[in-house]
């Protein structure tokens, strides 16, 4: 039996994948490449308009054939009901916050955005989530992952549609709630991770989630970028590893040059947890954006979804014009291993070979005789 076969965990059989490597990406091309390489591509659609989702998923299915993949939705609680409520809330954004953002625009000479962008036009509402969910449920996807909130009825509806539910959890308490809701797979995401996060580190979180999960498979996420770390996750009892930051270095992600350079230059200490991105704690690569919001004279970031309602247009402009000092993206402490661009299939092959080597090293430690 080859080394690669030895780490085919039960979740591989269950999901129909060759390797228990899960890859989250907002890029359809990256998610497709991960699934084609034998992993489980997870395509983030939280930043997509509901009417665009069916076409995107159809394109992803065409790209992967029969290989399984999931899509990921963010379903935070406490959002406004609909666009009318969102507009009323937008009107209530304090003048001091608007002035702070305008000052940032002036100081960094950010030209106006010319292209439409999700956050410059959209406020997260319950109506939006309902439409996104509807689009996903009726599409040809194998799994649905949910993060930042987990309405119980969503798990039931996803399961009723015959799809696998994967739930990202950041604490044993969240894990219990996801299990009670009926989640098929738990993704224990530690605070080393890029993106929205709780306070518990991956090495402390994963074993605790495994303890409460019983027979439900647990995938480890947060800070994983090498095969040795995947082997460590397996050694803890996780059935696989879930990576996000690593794919910002995938060629298919077409990461804008200024952002790519920032990510390559960054070490683990250059990421920060800030509410200045979305209003909820989110780990990002540090830039003048997170620094400005952390300054003593800065206003406190607004709660989700109002922080994006306030900053969406400026963030879109920063991204479009690649305003180097300000560009940033969600990124985890694993950014230390992002040292250049490579095709996603090459990243998958490197991870698989490294995991083989790490497991062989551990096997060699076993007592003989
Ligand atoms: C750029 C980026 C965007 C992310 N967006 C989401 C998201 O929309 N939904 C989600 O469930 N997780 C999101 N995440 C978190 C990932 O799913 C994953 O848990 C995390 O990246 C794992 O840790 P790592 O970044 O150290 O690999 C994002 C991560 C990154 C790096």
Which CATH class of the largest domain is shown?
Alpha Beta
Question: What's the gyration radius in Å?
Answer: 20 Å
Query: What is the spatial order of strands in the main beta sheet?
Result: 1-2-3-4-5-6-8-9
Could you estimate the helical fraction of the residues in percent? 40-55%
- Work out the strand percent: 5-15%
Give a list of the ligands: flavin mononucleotide
Can you name the CATH architecture of the largest domain? Alpha-Beta Barrel
Low-confidence stretches: none
Q: Helices and strands: which structural class?
A: alpha/beta
Can you put this structure into words, describing what you see?
The chain is an alpha/beta fold and 369 residues long. It folds into 2 domains: 1-79 and 125-253 and 341-359, Aldolase class I (TIM Barrel, Alpha-Beta Barrel), CATH 3.20.20.70; 80-123 and 256-336, no CATH class. It contains 16 helices and 11 strands. An 8-stranded parallel β-barrel has the order 1-2-3-4-5-6-8-9, surrounded by 7 helices. It has a 3-stranded antiparallel beta sheet with strand order 7-11-10, covered by helices on one side. It is globular, with a radius of gyration of 20 Å. Bound molecules: flavin mononucleotide (FMN). Flavin mononucleotide (FMN) is lined by residues 24, 44, 46, 72, 74, 145, 147, 168, 189, 192-195, 221-224, 242-246, 329-332, 334.
